[in-house]
Batch of 4 targets.
Target 1
Amino acid sequence: MSDLDLLTQSLARNVKRWRTERGFTLDTLAARAGVSRGMLIQIEQARTNPSLGTVVKIGDALGVSITTLLDYEQGPRVRVVPADQAVRLWHTDAGSYNRLLAGAEAPGPLEMWEWRLMPGEGSPSDPHPGGTVELVHVTAGELTLTVDGVDYRVPEGASASFEANAPHAYANTGKTPMEMIMAVSVPPVR
């Protein structure tokens, strides 16, 4: 399959996913995006390669980025953000600053949790409803994050985001306590 075919398939899957998640009909999205219903049908059936301008309009109407619409990763997506790749958005001469640690597009309620796991301990989690996203930021120790059977090491100062509709678990396989901040975004009930 060519890169263009992958992008066409990804765009089809992602437009339909986000349209459904937002509760939009084809007519609603067409009106919001300023594109024809027929064009949306062709896009969702992977029968056309729309212009970049059309993709931007659809992304804006859905409230998601172009990157999200063209993302061809399948299955549970996990992105570990190393500490040195956190984005500092502003700072002052006095030493104040903020850093974007990890982000994900989420349409519903958002919870923030503080966790501490002692060495050798862990906590499994059943899959959450489709569309649920979790963000974690490790403030001490190292987290072993397991998503759909795959282990990811998230060291102190690093962050990760993942789609939580697969089995997942948090563990401390190190020798010191692990502490993290976790945010959970669950899609709204429709």
Target 2
Amino acid sequence: MEAPAAPHDPTETRLTVTSPEQMRELGRRLAKLLRAGDLVMLTGELGAGKTTLTRGLGEGLGVRGAVTSPTFVIARVHPSLGGGPPLVHVDAYRLSGGLDEMEDLDLDVSLPDSVIVVEWGEGKVEELTEDRLQVVIHRAVGDTTDEVRHVTVTGLGERWSEAGLETLSG
């Protein structure tokens, strides 16, 4: 993975990922910065690598269970194997009702004690907390053999102002 040479805002980091294994590794590195109460929103095309990144997060957080796409169950909880926070993995793709529909999942109850990762959460979960991490994954559209992904990680709120996002590029 390589980061651009230009200086960047400490609350935003841009990366280039060239394989699914590098995406998982990014997730493992990101997990080191996460703690209970963190909300991570993942945005990207189908097949961009959102679940692969979350799989790496799960490995880095040391949670139980294989991290797979929760598309058909909407949300899946992975308890910690070592005393850390559980990972709540949500797929909001089929939810169209915004926060009202998301409230049925009780994410606001889970948030203080968990790391919550929401795929397709844009416009649906921002009201849960002002402090959140937005991860946008861009890939070439139409070329399914291209493994290159451009990832932008943006920390919003005071929680992320000094969280060390720049360490993700190394």
Target 3
Amino acid sequence: MSDLDLLTQSLARNVKRWRSERGFTLDALAARAGVSRGMVIQIEQARTNPSLGTVVKIGDALGVSITTLLDHVQGPVVRIVPAERAVRLWHTDAGSYNRLLAGAEAPGPLEMWDWRLMPGESSSSDPHPAGTVELVHVTAGELTLTVGGVGHRVPAGASASFDAGTAHTYGNDGDVPMEMVMAVSVPPVG
């Protein structure tokens, strides 16, 4: 079984499990996530490889992290993720990417990401659920962080935190690659 097949099967099983635990119907999850009922069915039947945005929306609607949705083994209290097992969920031909390094439920989803943006590239995010907080630490280059339409420059060595309940964009307006580590904390579903 390929890594993609393993992720697709894990996503199917975990979406179904968490939807059931939350008591959500297919229609309720679709409405909460802002995706079609058909997409939820395809995901739960492992018949599609959804976009990162769709997986994020479903995780947010269920109140669980992407790591939890993609986890194929419920591990021990300490979970070590070898570098080669970090999940790359987005990339461009120019070399930009993000990798989900680790995640936990504490008490809501908590995720740690590794990002690289090549010069001139950007990645936009829809608003996350109210109360979601993101922390970024730039390790190389300079991040242009746009939150609510306002741009902020975050140079190498600097960190930023913000309320991710509004649309936001990570951009690289410089001429060298930008690298950062990001943590995302989503409040639990009430």
Target 4
Amino acid sequence: MAAPEDVTESKLLLAEYDRIKEEQKARIGFRDNLLYFTLAASTAVLAITVQNRRAQLLLAVPVICLVLGWTYVVNDEKISAIGRYIREQLGPRLAELSGARGAVFGWEIYHREDTSRTTRKRLQTAVDHFTYLALPMTCLIAFWSSRAVDPLLLIVSIVQTLALGMLGWQFLHYAER
């Protein structure tokens, strides 16, 4: 067990930094893999739908995109929250304790000042919207255009459309500028 004089506020804050950066790194990997998994799962459903000629199966794509899209949004928000916490809370506390003149954890600020950041963020939002909204909406339109529409499935598809609209709003709401 460490002696009380070995446990300082600075050491605790640095340990916290290490842990939350590990969490951020894990969340980034998970979030990025969600995009690939969504595309793979949707492609598999589309292949099965075409193979079996059952338009009802198209309703699985919005479910996939809603569940994985929401998980993507939640992870993306936590990744951003970790960065904000480091910039706004942890860094300033450590700077104060250490007497540092400049920003502590400068990368957390520096990488956000890139002149291409806004363009990249907009393009990523477009990719997210294509994957999690345009793809399932295309499937819904294909379903509505088929002969497989019955009243219950029509209601399901309308609920899915509303849920996709809410997901789209969440992507825009949490998109960091």
